Amino acid sequence: MNIHLKTKFCGVLFSTPLVSLSGIVVDISGNTRLAKFKGIGGITTKSASILPREGHPIPRIASFGAGYLNNVGLRNPGIDKSVKELIELKKTTKKPIIASIVGFQLQELPILAQKIAAAKPEFIELNLSCPNVDDEAGKPIASDPLLSAIAVSEVKKVVKNIPIIAKLTPNVVDIKKVAYEVEEAGVDAISAINTVGPGMLIDFKRRRAVLGSRVGGVSGAAIKPVALRCVNDIYKTVKVPILGMGGIETGRDALEMIMAGATLVGVGSAIYKGGQQVFDKIFSEMQELCQEEKIGSLKKIRGII
Ligand SMILES: Cc1cc2nc3c(=O)[nH]c(=O)nc-3n(C[C@H](O)[C@H](O)[C@H](O)COP(=O)(O)O)c2cc1C
After folding, report:
1. In this structure, are residues 211 and 71 in contact, taking their beta carbons and an 8 Å threshold?
2. Ligand 1 pocket test, candidate residues 195, 257, 267, most atoms within 8 A of CB
3. CA 19, 276, 4: angle at the middle one, nearest 5?
């Protein structure tokens, strides 16, 4: 008999602990198809910004065997179209939706949050990992614990009835500080990690960088050790639940992420290799491993490290 693995996250029930991540499947038809897989518990939408964004020069994504390098440049249709798309998507699935938003200035976040809240997603995820144009160095909001806290409290002032998730970057000296400050500011949950880097790949024959924008964020299997460490650091620092992600490709990876402290587990780059059915594969591997290892409930292993 298979154990069910249903998971509650901020009071919302997920049929499985596996969710898709922001930026990999971006259109409604893709997400509608994705939501039909029994292994997937929820969907995260592409980060929406105030204005539409074309993104960076192509190629925007490249594989290097152990993972991927991308600099899509937050290509998205802008918040107004994203709200309409979210309303459409919600008509096609009852699975919880995590709506991602991204601001280039702090004050954009409450505006974006209020707009996306109108489409009634189950969660709003603040992608705090893009460069903040208010900062002279263009550092991501999430690289500064206090700015991250302000971002959360400004959003919490305007959105009261939808749980807010802060998505953190691993590219900081101490992710625990950022996690602590966003929890103090009232965040409902934390997701981690966004891509690692930036990194660069070189096209040896053509003597140039592979990506059109030279550098990009690293994702996929190569970043799993960084992701597990970050999630474990966060788990040991805060009480709010964690959506853990970074390099998850197998059921064993997902259970390790839960051992590090995650409640939900995100799957992104693995879709490139395994297709959308990768969610069913990971889910059945989790069930088999739980049976083999006599893990009757995920609570028993959560944060065990
Ligand atoms: C092509 C691509 C686009 C992405 N776009 C976004 C995005 O719009 N917003 C965001 O918060 N994260 C974005 N990410 C980061 C992922 O959501 C995820 O945090 C990261 O890739 C680690 O998970 P993975 O190793 O399973 O892919 C993107 C990643 C990739 C590969």
Report:
1. yes
2. 195
3. 50
The reported pTM is 0.97
Spatial contact of 19 and 44, defined as CB atoms under 8 Å apart: yes
**Peptide bond preceding 164: is omega within 30 degrees of 0, i.e. cis?**
no
Q: Is the CB of 245 under 6 A from ligand 1?
A: yes
Give the residue, by CA position, lying nearest to ligand 1 atom 10: 22
Q: CA 43, CA 79: separation in Å to the nearest integer? A: 18
What domains are there in the chain, each with its CATH number?
7-300 (3.20.20.70)
Q: What DSSP designation does 269 have?
A: T
Please tell me the distance from the alpha carbon of residue 251 to that of residue 137, in angstroms, as a whole number. Answer: 40
The angle subtended at Cα 23 by Cα 208 and Cα 299, nearest 5°, is: 125
Best CA proximity match to 67, nearest among 230, 222, 292: 222
Give the pLDDT confidence of 110-122 residue by residue, as tens digits: 999 999 999 999 9
DSSP 43: E
Look at residues 255, 274, 195, 197 and name the one whose alpha carbon lies nearest to residue 25: 274
pLDDT digits 0-9 by tens, 143-175: 999 999 999 999 999 999 999 999 999 999 999
For ligand 1, atom 2: residue with the closest CA: 23
Closest CA relative to residue 21, chosen from 285, 276, 251:
276
Q: Cα 280–286–287 angle (5° rounding)?
A: 90
Q: Tell whether ligand 1 has an atom less than 6 A from the beta carbon of residue 194.
A: yes
For residue 251, the surrounding DSSP H or E stretch is helix 251-260
Residue 148 CB burial class (10 angstroms; 0-12, 13-18, ≥19): buried
| 46 within ligand 1 shell (Cβ under 6 A) | yes
Please say if 130 is a catalytic residue. Answer: yes
Quote the pLDDT of residue 3.
76
**Taking the C-alpha atoms of 271, 273, 275 and 281 in order, what is their torsion angle to the nearest 10 degrees?**
-90
